[in-house]
């Protein structure tokens, strides 16, 4: 596809940048995500554009899959360059759920369920991190944070919208789990999927209750697999051709966590922290994303009537 460019990040897993996709049309260029904003990542992005004989200032539209920093961290640098070049016509496509976090990065604390930390870690929080755990400050070290200015040109996209981007027609699929408004884009004619973080080459994206949790993630997998997908371009890693196998692997990994939790609860009741410590061995992983993932599964299992909570303990029914 001579008008479709796949700019792959150096590594497939966080904290590497997300992949960036570029479409060329008669008006110029369209980005789908822009990657992390750290200098080494933006430098590589701009070099890749030059290698493809593409000009950054030909970009007229940017579609964002969600508001996480590895996907939109470079927005600040791009918008600054456009402003310096006296170009203010850039259009940004994002769904209404993710728009709020894109305009205010502090809201990521809500969708990442950072309020679970003081709830469960109590006084141990300050001891482990020598002060309050601040997600935004933590991420800034790993991947530059960006938020969109209030006056930028945002167009809201919705579930089942058809986006005509160049010669491609993408069906908008809202696929929560990893982010509350996480968006995947399905090309209805050529049958390929831009899966964002929903389906990656390796592993499984983390999830939290407010981002859709285990239940939302599984529902999103079920949604996309109903389409006749022939190829997946993920936001992390190489393109995926074994579609059903990869979806099955991710689904089984999520369901296995249910089974392991139930296995532990069959032995004896546990607290949330005891379960978290069983599955996540380092202080950092217990804080993020451990506690949020465990809580996601407990919510799912409780809704299914497989467990119950009583006086701070969790029992298998």
Ordered list of secondary-structure elements with their pairings:
Blueprint: E1 4-7, E2 20-25, E3 28-32, H1 39-51, E4 59-63, H2 69-72, H3 75-84, E5 91-95, H4 96-103, H5 108-111, H6 116-121, H7 124-129, H8 135-142, E6 153-157, E7 162-165, E8 168-174, E9 183-187, E10 192-196, H9 213-224, E11 231-234, H10 243-267, H11 272-279, H12 283-303, E12 307-310, E13 313-316
Parallel strand pairs: 3-4, 4-5, 5-6, 10-11
Antiparallel strand pairs: 1-2, 2-3, 7-8, 8-9, 9-10, 12-13
Describe the overall structure.
The chain is of the alpha/beta class and 317 residues long. It has two domains: 4-127 and 130-242, Metallo-beta-lactamase, Chain A, CATH 3.60.15.10; 251-316, Winged helix-like DNA-binding domain superfamily/Winged helix DNA-binding domain (Arc Repressor Mutant, subunit A). Helix content is 39%, strand content 20%. It is built from twelve helices and 13 strands. It has helices at residues 39-51, 69-72, 75-84, 96-103, 108-111, 116-121, 124-129, 135-142, 213-224, 243-267, 272-279, 283-303, and strands spanning 4-7, 20-25, 28-32, 59-63, 91-95, 153-157, 162-165, 168-174, 183-187, 192-196, 231-234, 307-310, 313-316. The strands form three sheets. Strands 1-2-3-4-5-6 form a six-stranded mixed β-sheet. Strand 12 (307-310) and strand 13 (313-316) form a beta hairpin. The radius of gyration is 20 Å and the shape is globular.
